């Protein structure tokens, strides 16, 4: 039994501690969480945002403070990510009660930014309640959900630093904002129909507001119209995915010939009707990032994903999208980025109205401005776990690696699938997907993204170490050269390998790195793309093997015409086959390309595995031009799905080069004797895996790192997993394609300038 203290016994000694939290702790309800936690542990003090995270001062009994600090990590909000918690003794201030103080900023910001979050279940239930103030309100949110990165204009994350600053809170919202027991306690984007932004639907000269606008848009979609819908990070173009005429009209207006469209469905059950959803794929689909998830299709939706056995599906993540489905919009909605093919997504209202005129029949427009364009992310569940193919909404601009560098580093990536990285205080922030810089609008978006990130973190350009691809003619290289600050060029394929190691924090680990892609500027000025390296990020990578060199006629245009690329590979064979006759039926472009090869005119040496895939696709029937990057290789992968496992063709290593000639000669012989195209395609994939295994056989004591666009191929990854298991490392936090190049550039630069 506890005994009461004597009257002269001293009260328990009180102490004070200063606690600092770093990571994704702003914009995720962390200060309200700390407030409630401190109150539950009977502590006095305060919490505030600062330039590097969350700053906390607590006073109370030592054991209460100890349990409070343990609970911070154990019970943190689901959207938060604590990278580091530090604390030290502090002076007692004699405080009573616990408060949330105004944010303080004294130095350059280093805190991580929260990505946008999907609407939570509590807000969805409230939005569907006719008695609730926010019934059918498309901007409903709380500390657990809603916009973050897409509305933030400056740090720290407070309402005046967001695009909600133009809507003062009404008394009702203000009371919730100040109530520690309310889930909207310090929710910065809080709003309601009485004080917040609204949506309108514009069709011709007619304008409809409020829920009537949502209902009108749903009706138009049911009737086959194409509607531009403003979302979190930009506009979508939406239409009925089961209406083939609407889908075809969208393709024609958008100039999107064959690249697959994504489908939005109202829930997981609807997704299972469209695709084969593994447990891993469902986890991705329902995650807080809400990406588009690629999965095997159960049904064919004409025009949605031509010549493709996969569909990209995603769940609604904004209140408006849920309201559209509830209002009767088709349950299988095409939701694609609102742009013409290859342009960046439209996100500013005037620009959207201008650029989407002639594409959209109507516009569903929200009043809240978008601070920056953020596309939907794309991911796939694979043999090595979830793989990000396009990193944007839900992921960006999260920290993906910690690097040994105090100096600010800007890595500008490559020209295809561009993303940039900014390293602040050793934290590598990778931007959202930007796109292909050969297009003017994408190049402008690239420049804006760099300015945006540098401005957010108060980086003075002259302080930067600017890292770029070694290709002297890249647009990204030209822009880097025009920036102030020190410059560093990094070879493309070494950056691919380094990106995997940076994610894992394995900068000192010796590996065998394999970088397979379509194109990258090599040390010798030729086009690389089938490279093997040994070494580490810290000590550098040495090229130890590659694909045998072929001659690429016409340069970059060969990437658009598989038969043109094939000419440079097939000319090396000891073959008298006329590939313009059946069963190959190459068009006249092949003859013209072959003339260039034999006359030694406009030829570019290459070791590109991507172009080898194009050659194999051409031999099996893909003889037309590609309409998007990687199309022929995707076609070949899907063709191979019709075959069981078969033996590989010979793909020998000779003098450090994987010799493609026996491989292609075997494919040609099989095609001439009538073997099924699916079996030949499967044997080709087995051969690529076999070639990697041959080289890896000489380096059995080190991990095998796989990166580059070729390793988006699910079948090839399955073969790698079967052959190497956990020894093989792949990208997890950034894409294996050129969207991850910037991280590898940043890692190699960081060790180059580290003490």
User: Using only CA atoms, what is the Rg?
Assistant: 28 Å
The amount of helix comes to 25-40%
Would you tell me the overall average pLDDT? 94
Q: What is the class of the largest domain in the CATH system?
A: Alpha Beta
How would you describe the overall organization of this protein?
- There is one protein chain.
- This protein is 30% helix and 22% strand.
- With 755 residues, it is of the alpha/beta class.
- The protein has an 11-stranded mixed beta sheet, with helices on both faces. A 7-stranded mixed beta sheet has the order 28-29-25-24-23-30-31, with helices on both faces.
- Helix 14 crosses helix 15, helix 14 crosses helix 16 and helix 18 packs antiparallel against helix 19.
- The protein is globular.
- The relative contact order is 0.09.
Task: List the keywords.
single chain, 755 residues, alpha/beta, Alpha-Beta Plaits, DHBP synthase, Nucleotidyltransferase, domain 5, 4 domains, 11-stranded mixed sheet, 30% helix, 22% strand
Layout of strands and helices, then pairs:
Blueprint lengths: L14 E10 L5 H11 L3 E7 L2 E8 L1 H13 L6 E10 L7 E3 L20 H7 L43 H8 L20 E5 L2 E4 L1 H12 L4 E4 L4 E6 L3 H11 L7 E3 L3 H7 L4 H7 L6 E5 L13 E5 L4 H8 L6 E5 L11 H7 L6 E5 L11 E5 L2 E6 L8 E4 L6 E3 L9 E4 L2 E4 L9 H17 L8 E5 L5 H8 L3 E5 L1 H13 L6 E11 L5 E10 L3 E8 L2 E4 L8 H9 L17 H12 L3 E4 L2 H11 L11 H10 L12 E2 L2 E2 L2 H12 L4 H20 L7 E4 L6 H11 L3 E3 L10 H13 L2
